[in-house]
Each structure stands twice: as C-alpha cells, then as structure tokens.
Amino acid sequence: MKNKLLPTTVVGSHPKPKWLNHLIVEFEQGNLDKGVMESAFNDSVRAVVKVQELAGLDIFWDGEMRREEMTSYFAENIDGFTVYGPVRVWGNNYYKKPAITGELRYRDEFSLSDYRFLSSLTDRGIKVPLTGPYTIVDWSFNEHYNTKEDAVYALAEVINEELKALVAAGADFIQIDDPAISTHVDELEVAKKSVEIATKGVKAYIGLHICYGDYSKLYPQVLDFPVDQLDFELANKNFEDIKIFREHDFTKDIGFGCVDVHTKRVESVAEIKENITKSFEMVEPKQVYVDPDCGVKLLSPQKAFEKLKNMCDAAEELREEL
Amino acid sequence: MEFVTSMAGSYPRPDWFKLHLKKQEGSQKGVAGLIDDRYVKALKQVLDEQDKAQIQLKTDGQLLWHNMLCHLCYKIEGFAPGGLIRFYDNNMYYQKPRVESELKRKNSIILSEYLKARESGHDIKPVLSCYTLTKLSSNSFYSSDDDFLQALASVLNQEARDLADAGARVIQVDEPALLSADKEGLEIAKKAFEVLVKDVDASFVLSTYYADASKAFAELLEFPVQGIGLDFVEGKDINLKLIKEHGLDLDLQAGVVDARTTRMEDPANVSKLVSEITKAVDSDRLYVCPNMGLEYLPYVKAAQKLSVLSDSIRGGVLR
Ligand SMILES: [Zn+2]
Hints:
- The complex is a heterodimer of chains A (about 325) and B (about 325).
- The relative contact order of chain A is 0.14.
- Chain A is α/β, with parallel strands linked by helices.
- Chain A is built from ten helices and eleven strands.
- In chain A, strands 5-7-8-9-10-11 form a six-stranded parallel sheet. A three-stranded mixed sheet of chain A has the order 2-3-6. In chain A, strands 1-4 form a two-stranded parallel sheet.
- The longest helix of chain A is centred in the first third of the chain and has 22 residues, at about 35-55.
- Chain B is of the alpha/beta class.
- Chain B has one domain (about 1-320): Alpha-Beta Barrel (TIM Barrel).
- Chain B has a seven-stranded parallel sheet.
- In chain B, strand 7, helix 8 (about 215-220) and strand 8 form a beta-alpha-beta unit.
- In chain B, helix 6 (about 145-165) packs parallel to helix 7 (about 185-195) and helix 10 (about 265-280) packs across helix 11.
- The longest helix of chain B is centred in the middle third of the chain and has 21 residues, at about 145-165.
- Chain B is globular and about 50 Å long.
- The chains are: A alpha/beta (about 325), B alpha/beta (about 325).
- Zinc ion binds next to loops of chain A.
C-alpha cells in the first residue's frame, strides 16, 4: 500500500468548524432540516480535505465531522444499543454512554458512505478509522450479555461485516482505534481475539491505534495482534517509550506519533524531523508512517493545520536526506 | 428488620443542571458551582428521587462536586490542580491535586452544601475522603506521606466538627485506596483517622468499594470509627466470608446493588444477599445502599437502581 517512504497521515479527528458546531446544536433542537445538516457535514468534509491537501498529507481521513464521540456514534448505528443519557467523563464534560440492551446486530453501514464521499473528493490515500469492539464495549454498559467477552465478540462480528463492505467499496487501509486496551492489560487476550474476529477475511492493510497508558504492559504481546501496523503516541511521553519497543524486535510497521496533540505549542519542522528520526532507533525507515499522537480535534483549526503542515514538511525533508 | 436504607454518595446531576453548571462555570472560569436558586432546585430534585425510592439516610448527591477529590482539595489552601488522570478503572478522569504549601482550612469545605441540604428536613449524610485523597494526589511539600496525611486529617477534623454541630449524625469517609494499602499505609491511615474523628460528635463510616477488603479487613476493624462500608457487589464472596469469619462489632454500610451498571438486579437476589449479611451483622447496625455513588449512571437509571434497592427490602424474603 505504501509507495513512498515515511508516508504522512492523521489518526482521524479534526477540529470541527465553528459554524458546524452551531448547526449541530440547531439540528438537535429541531430547527434545521436533515438535508441542510447533511450538506453542512459534506461541506465541512470538503474543508478538511482542503486543509489536508494544503498541509501535504499523503493519507487522508474526513476529520470525523459526523462523529461526536468515539462510542455513541457507532452504538447509535448498530442494533442492540440504547443510549439513556449522558454520563460524566470529567468536570462538566459528559459522553453518551451506550448500554447494550439486546443482541448486537448489523443494521446498516456506519462508515461506508463517509468513505465513498471522501474518495469522491480526493485521489490521495485514505485510511478509515473505526473504534474497536473492545473499546466500544468497555465504554458501554452491558445489560444483555453474560460476560464482557461475549459482548466484545458479538460486536466484533458486526464490525467485521462493515470492514468487508468497506474493502468491497475500495478501502485498502483500515485503522482500529482501541484506546481502552491499555487500561485493562489483563484483558489483552480478549482484545486480541476481538481484532481477529473483526479483521477476518478483510483484505486491507490494518492498523491498530492505542493511545494513553503504559505500553510496557502490553508490549511485546501486542505484536501478536493480527495487524500490519501499530500506531502509538510517542511525542506526548517524550519518546521515552522507544526504550520499551527496542527490547523486542518490532515486527510490525509503526504509526509513529511524532506531534503532541495535547499542547498548543506548534513544534518546528526541525524539531519534528528530529522526532521522526528517533523512530529509526527501533525500526527501519520503510516501516514508519508519520502521524500525530492522536486525533487533533481538541486543537484550534489554525494550530491543527500548522502542526500537520510542519509534520509533512519535516517528513519531506527527511525523505530527501535518506 | 430494622436496618436503614442509605445512599453511598453521589447522585447524577439532572440534565438541565449540567447545562446550567457548564454555562455558569464557562463564564466564570475556575469558579465552582454556586449555591443559588438553581442549585437548590436540583438539590430538591435529587432529594425527592431518594425519598420516592424510600432511602432513609440521604446525601445531597454531591451535585457541585466535579469528582471525588477536587471538590474537597480546592477549598483547602495548599492544593493546586494538576493534569487529568483516570479515576481507578472508570472511564472518568480527575485533575490530580498537587500539594504546594501547608494545608489550611481557610473556609469551610462542604459545610454550606450540607446546611442547604439540611434545610429540606431530611436526614443527610455528608461525605469526606482522607487517606484516598492523599494517595491520589502528588505531594512535593510535605517531607513524608505521614506528614501530608496528618495535615489533611487535621483540616478535615475542623470540617467534621462543624458538620456534626450542624446536625450530621453520620459522616462517611470514602477510602477505596485503603483496600490496596500496605501495612505502613494502614498504620498511618489509622493515625490520621484518630486525628480526623477527634472530638467530633458524630459517628464515622469508613467506606470502601471497587474490591473486597481481604488485604485490610483485620486492620480496618481497629480504626477509630463506628462503621465500615463494604462492597458486596464487586467484592461479594470474600466480603461475606470476612464478616462471617471475623464477625463485626461495628455498623456495616453494605453496598448491595451495582452502581456501575444500568443492568437492574432482580430484587429477590438482592434480598437474599441482604439476609446473608444479616446472619453476620445485627440488622439494627446495618445500612444497605448502592456499592458506591450513583454518578456512573445516566440520570434516569439512578432512581431505578434505588428502587431495586427498596423493592428488594419491601417485597423480599426478609418480610
Ligand atoms: Zn488516540
């Protein structure tokens, strides 16, 4: 799937334009019809595509303009989930924590039309990120299944169906987002089996994004996951985790988080170049994909752009030097 | 059957109140929620919910608390907020408090909320936290954990005295961290509790949850408190075994319904569990409650949980 060294990409989310947030509120209050809302979503994706072009990215995603959160978006589109209301994450911030109240079943696509729309807008590579079944279940209540495992595996089957549909439509790069894995390392086997089920028969390049947490507790075991790439945040922890990864032969490609999304400070091109170079301490350059630590949605649109742009410029300069 | 139905702490904020707080705090950064007419309305709403579910010993629902720690810390001089960090294994975060200077109680901490809740005429139980609060904070001021803990205990002691004077007959102290404390931790925590309860005219319940108490049970029995809280959901079998084997010459606050899932228990099963517990503990020394605060649930599910609790007692085998 790679045709150049150090391809640059995003983890997924992008800051929503202010006007889109306004329209979402209006829509939720019933003041906007569905057609207008849809065209607003589409226009915001067009804007994100333009930003990614200007930044110089090689592999795009649509910035997740339609997704409010990593869990409820999927839950609302899969049979068997009910959302009763918001639950606190911290302070005044809440998320719509879904409850599994029935058999989990595929209802209709939940990313396919996003993929199709994006591919109509660009000839660049596309990566489709989806929240992994393990994380969705971990962030949901379970009223229906006897065990958490049962729920995870049932959801993995649903996601498998969607991934196959994506590949049939032309998608060749899928990223499974599983941040909950690092919070329950005792359930690593369950998570691994869920990825196996979700990706079974899916003929695409598969990445696994895990942010937060202590990587020493899941490495090297995570090398046994049936994926092509592991995508980690490294900048946020000052690249200290490279030590951990060097202890065993890193047998996958790496999505190398080289830009910190938790700070407003825009790293310079020189600094990011140096960051990317650190990946060569653990893998060959041909194994490296360049991306930010995580989605950039919490940054301002301007900072997000500047960070992505500097990241792409840094990769370009390195490519010439290598 | 003389035991008391009780709350374990938090109650989810009504949805309209969430929006109100967000607006209020958004416009006045750093200002904690105010005790105004909106707050009073929300307080009444959650007290009514508890009343409907026949909860006898109520809490104010900790409606202004942003989490279990910061609400206490930031009213105590010497603490500053740090970075966001996960609260146990919940998908919930808190700003890790940092001690930067000597801890002092300049103003009251939760007293004004307690007084407001008392105006309702209900029996209200205030909630504090001591050892756990120090374990989940970072300290670069005090030279030892012991000093830090003693200083906090002495601040909280002043608060507890005022709470008791204001009419609190039971004060709950949340201490999930004691379940994983080592010998030394349990030792300094016990010393801190001696400071915390000194000359306070109320009975104290040391509340634990998230796990069983196997590593700390014998030591907890020696703490200068009148009651302990045990989680009979997440630590059910072992906690049952502990109270049967050791006996319990204290009040027991028994968490018997799971506050972390929207799945509703069968009241008959809860009822069976409560009667198991009464084999080891006099029912007049028993408080039955959810295993922890209810803020992990969406608002509509909290009342339902409390109803399961009271149904299990009303219609259950105990009658
Ligand atoms: Zn991430």
